Amino acid sequence: MPDTIVLNADLHGFGDACITAVIAENSQGRPVRLIHRATGEMRVFLEMLGQEVVDRDPEQCADTFLPYHTHEVQLERGEIPRVLSRARALGIDLSDLTPETIRMPTVTVGEEATIWAKRVCDEMRAFGHAKAVALWPQTCYQSREWPTGHWHDLAWGLRSHGIGSRFFLGTNEERWHNTPGFVFGMGWEKWAAMMLEADLNVAISSGPASLAAIARASTIVLEGPTKPTIWWHAPQIETMQVGTDRVSCVGCHFGSPFRSACDFGCFALAALTPDLVLSRVIQRLDVRGIERVQLHHWTTRNVGALRLPVA
């Protein structure tokens, strides 16, 4: 019988859960097997990925933070693919795998979620090139955010080129209201269905991007603090990132230390301009030949803040 590691998935985010789900899937039949302990939304999420989830005292469970930080961040500096590095840190050898032979968890999406995703995408495809682009801007870490203004410019740029898009959000935030459209709080199953139905997804390094990788959804990931090696297990993921000739601290999570300014946004992500991403999306969708529509906007922020002096 193989040794079994029970991982306490509640200690980490959904992106980490996607990575450990891939490790667990490929640990089957090996000397060391990985399964999960989780509660609440995390348990539902892992079960959607077909993972074995057990009840276990957290004190009897393993954690990935220390081995991950020691191996992947400090020693390997992101040079080894994340799946292989984190597996090795847990005592699981997956070094014989390649992106072509690695086995992905099966994402289970119900009929209701599939119908919902198709309806939403059909609404996005209702004009122009009949293409639907799903935008995933949120993350728990501000240092991984693509600037909000960049997202707005991309979304309206897509619309002006006859391409439908919407933002898909975990929580409702006012900063996404002045956009071509947004949806929030629908849950991971519908998010997975949306990723699969959309013609293209654009995300930052986050839980949604990690789920899109497992689902083999067509996706562009905008990178700044991390490195493309974290997507080694998902060849369909395309990354966009400026070079160190533009910003010296690109990939800082595995190299240069954070600065205090990073808490308010990533210089490397800010240097990745909306026009570059828009051009790549248009190329990926293979659309051309539609006359660009000029759109005009009045700001919706601080409306009425300016007051004329009373005579």
Please render the helix and strand layout as text.
Blueprint lengths: L2 E6 L5 H14 L4 E6 L2 H9 L4 E2 L10 H11 L6 H8 L21 H14 L7 E5 L11 H13 L3 E6 L12 E3 L3 H10 L2 E5 L2 H9 L3 E4 L14 E4 L26 H5 L2 H12 L26
Parallel strand pairs: 1-2, 2-3, 4-5, 4-7, 5-6, 7-8, 8-9
Fourth-level CATH superfamily of the largest domain: Glycogen Phosphorylase B
What oligomeric state is this?
A: single chain
Shape: globular
Domain count, please report it. 2
Number of strands: 9
- List unreliable stretches of 5+ residues: 302-308
CATH topology of the largest domain: Rossmann fold
Tell me the structural class: alpha/beta
Note the gap between the termini: 87 Å
Helix content estimate = 25-40%
The mean pLDDT is 88
C-alpha-based Rg, rounded: 21 Å
Just name the CATH architecture of the largest domain.
3-Layer(aba) Sandwich
Q: DSSP strand (E) fraction? A: 5-15%
Task: Please explain how this structure is put together.
The chain has 311 residues and is α/β, with parallel strands linked by helices. The chain has 2 domains: 3-88, no CATH class; 111-285, Glycogen Phosphorylase B (Rossmann fold, 3-Layer(aba) Sandwich), CATH 3.40.50.2000. 34% of the residues lie in helices and 13% in strands. Strands 6-5-4-7-8-9 form a 6-stranded parallel beta sheet, with helices on both faces. Strands 1-2-3 form a 3-stranded parallel beta sheet. The model is unreliable at 302-308 (pLDDT under 50).
